């Protein structure tokens, strides 16, 4: 009985301190503040990169095309989203607007290898193997950008991803010291999965602003590599 009485007293006191209306009001204010933060981050990312987004035809020249990884099927075939990014890269290379292509993606486990699948796709579509460099530890957009700068020595790049991800990607690569422009793919159907990924990407802008401000260290760095410089200098003709 004493325990029950004590429990009732605690609940009564809690109700006095945190009445339901006050709790609802606090939750509403917190949700509103969260929404303001998300929208503000998204707007800042978009406005700060609006003059750095191009088509393949209008893109200025840069040293390297950085192709961000995406889903690869069990067969090793790139998903349509990833294939579209890779097609942008080979078009830029063919047009002489980049000197090499850096494919960066997830190879965190032996059974899943985005960069190798990306390289194989490019080679199958006419890109010389010597013009391709691979980053096997691009576990996120920020890590791909940071590693491109710190490990591969990239200082000038055109980043390639879907149109809705382009502002965030440009901002992240610029934040680590790469002079960055971008080309976004808009060829995929704007239904179903596209809309889901689009919404998720808007929320990701908040995480991107955190990375830009605090510059967390990538999961894996390792030693410097010369593969990008070698690819830039390669002359397969």
Structure in a nutshell:
With 237 residues, the chain is α/β, with parallel strands linked by helices. The chain is built from eight helices and six strands, in the order H-H-E-E-H-E-H-E-H-E-H-E-H-H.
Describe the structure in your own words.
The longest helix is centred in the first third of the chain and has 30 residues, at 20-49. With 237 residues, this protein is α/β, with parallel strands linked by helices. β5, α6 (166-175) and β6 (179-185) form a beta-alpha-beta unit. The mean pLDDT is 87. It is built from eight helices and six strands. Helices cover 51% and strands 13% of the residues. The chain has helices at 2-17, 20-49, 80-94, 114-124, 141-150, 166-175, 193-214, 227-233; strands spanning 53-54, 64-68, 100-104, 132-135, 156-162, 179-185. α6 (166-175) packs parallel to α7 (193-214). It is elongated and about 80 Å long. The chain has a six-stranded parallel sheet with strand order 1-6-5-2-3-4, sandwiched between helices.
Q: Mind telling me the C-alpha Rg?
A: 23 Å
Structural category: alpha/beta
Main β-sheet description: 6 strands, parallel
Oligomeric grouping of the chains: single chain
Task: Choose one word for the global shape.
Answer: elongated
Order of helices and strands: HHEEHEHEHEHEHH
Taking all residues together, what is the mean pLDDT?
A: 87
Stretches where pLDDT falls below 50 for ≥5 residues? Answer: none
Which percent range describes the beta-strand content?
Answer: 5-15%
């Amino acid at each position: 009985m004493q325990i029950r009485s004590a429990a009732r007293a605690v609940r009564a006191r809690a109700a006095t301190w945190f009445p339901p209306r006050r709790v609802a009001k606090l939750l509403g204010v917190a949700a509103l503040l969260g929404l303001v933060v998300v929208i503000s981050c998204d707007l800042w990312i978009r406005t700060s990169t609006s003059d750095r987004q191009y088509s393949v035809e209008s893109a200025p020249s840069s040293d390297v095309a950085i192709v961000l990884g995406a889903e690869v099927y069990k067969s090793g075939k790139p998903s349509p989203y990833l294939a579209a990014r890779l097609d942008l890269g080979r078009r830029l290379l063919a047009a002489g607007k980049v000197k090499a292509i850096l494919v960066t993606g997830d190879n965190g486990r032996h059974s899943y290898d985005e960069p190798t699948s990306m390289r194989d796709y490019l080679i199958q579509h006419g890109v010389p193997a010597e013009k391709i460099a691979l980053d096997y530890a691009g576990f996120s957009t920020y890590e791909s950008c940071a590693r491109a700068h710190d490990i591969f020595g990239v200082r000038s790049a055109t980043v390639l991803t879907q149109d809705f991800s382009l502002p965030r990607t440009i901002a992240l690569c610029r934040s680590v010291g790469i002079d960055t422009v971008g080309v976004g793919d808009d060829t995929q159907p704007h239904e179903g999965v596209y809309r889901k990924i689009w919404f998720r990407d808007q929320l990701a802008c908040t995480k991107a602003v955190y990375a830009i401000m605090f510059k967390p260290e990538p999961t894996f760095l390792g030693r410097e590599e010369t593969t990008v410089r070698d690819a830039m200098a390669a002359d397969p003709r």
